[in-house]
Each structure stands twice: as structure tokens, then as C-alpha cells.
Amino acid sequence: MKLRSYSNHSNYRKKGNRLNRLTLVVVFVIIGVFLFIYYLNEQLMPTYLDYAEIQTAKIASSVVSKAIDSRTSSVMDVNDILVEVSPGNHADLKVNTETINRVRTETVNQVKLYLEQAEQGELSHLPNLDNVEYDYNKINEGNGVVFYMPLSQAANIPLIGNLGPKIPIRFHVIGNVHSEVTSSIKEYGINSAYMSVGIHIEVKVQIIVPFASKTTTVTQDIPVAMGLVRGDVPSVYSKGGEEVPSIQVPITPKK
């Protein structure tokens, strides 16, 4: 009886040892898998964020473009927004700031409205992009624009196409829409210039992916007015230099 009891005790101990070893193996495997996933995620995180930034810029730029297209104002002739500083002196001109500021305010308000509506679930403002799948339920909750990107696309693995898990991306506008008036003048012919006046729009958005976030700025330039500004033709024309004679242009005296 004692021999049998010792034998049973030995079997139990062997089974316990095997169970302990199996438990340790399972624990080590789980830890190894977790560490591998963590390492892989850390290595691919910059790629995730870069891809998310590109797609976010496309979506936000499209929303801004739709807002601009919906404005009541269109591109004007630059001569319509120029006023004479001195009455009767067409050579001394300045931009009508009242007109420009009106268009600027109208544009900024429209952009803000469209971005807010897109974040609150106005799906007509969102573009249809390849490899972008919107989460309409979360968008309707008003927590920003949420979409998914395939892991294969983010990691640039074309062999598996759109297979694999999809990574959720959320972005929302932070701060106000910043704008400033821009202008450029290029010489054109004799005493003429091609002038363009526009509005530079900057929208700051926060991009959120699992375990990381990034802030980026989406920019867009909007033309307001452009055209050729013609000055008075000078009565004397010269290319410069002592050996080049000047040309006197006959002017008919005003009656």
C-alpha cells in the first residue's frame, strides 16, 4: 500500500510539473506575441501617421473646395477692386480693402460651416476616395470625421491588396480657420502688370490613430481677383544705355 501511495504521489508531481511548464510556455508565448505586436506597431507608427495625414489632407481639402465653390462671389476682374488714391490719377491705385475683407469673411465663414457640418455627419461634404471607408455611425455622433484604412495600404504591402485589419483614423478641426490676403504683381509689356489677389486659408486638424496622434495644417489658396492692369503709355521709351536712342511718342493734345 505504501508503494502504491508513493507511485501515485510521483505521478501527480510529474503531472503538476508538466502543467507548470505548459503554463510557463503559454505565458511566454503571450508575452512574446505582445512584445512583437508592440515592436511592429512602433516600427509602423510613422507610416500610419504619414498615410493618415495624406488621406486627411485629401478629405479636408475637398471639404474646403466645396465650401469655396458654394460661395456667392466668384473670381473678379482685378480692375474692379482697384481704386484711385488721387482722383483722376490712374497711375496711383490701391486695392479696395472693403471688398477684399467682405469676400474674405464670407469665404472663411463658409469654410468653417462646411467643416463643422462634415464633423457632425453631413455626408454630402465628404469626398469618395479609394481605400477610404467612413464610419458613418461615429461621424453622426459628432466626434469628428472617422474613417478606416487597410493595414496593407498603410504599410505599403501591395501583395495582400486590401486584406488584413483596418486601422481607424479620426480627425477634427482644432482652433479657428486662419486666413490672410495675398497678392502678386508681374510686369507685362510697357507700363502694364498682371496682378492677382487671393486668400490663403489654413486649417489646423488633429489626426488620431490607435496609440498616437498628430497635428497638421491643411492649406489652400483661393483666387479672388486677377487681371491685367494697364498704365499710361510713356511719351518716351528707351531700353537704357547711352548708345540706344530714346523714341519720342507723339501725343495728341487733349482739347
TrEMBL record:
Q: Could you name the domain of life of the organism this protein comes from? A: Bacteria
Q: Name one Pfam family in it.
A: Spore_YunB
Q: Which UniProt keywords apply?
A: Membrane, Transmembrane, Transmembrane helix
Residues annotated as transmembrane: 21-40
Q: Which InterPro entries does the annotation name?
A: Sporulation_prot_YunB (IPR014197)
Q: Which NCBIfam families match?
A: spo_yunB
What is the protein's given name?
A: Sporulation protein YunB
Organism per entry: Lysinibacillus sphaericus (Bacillus sphaericus)
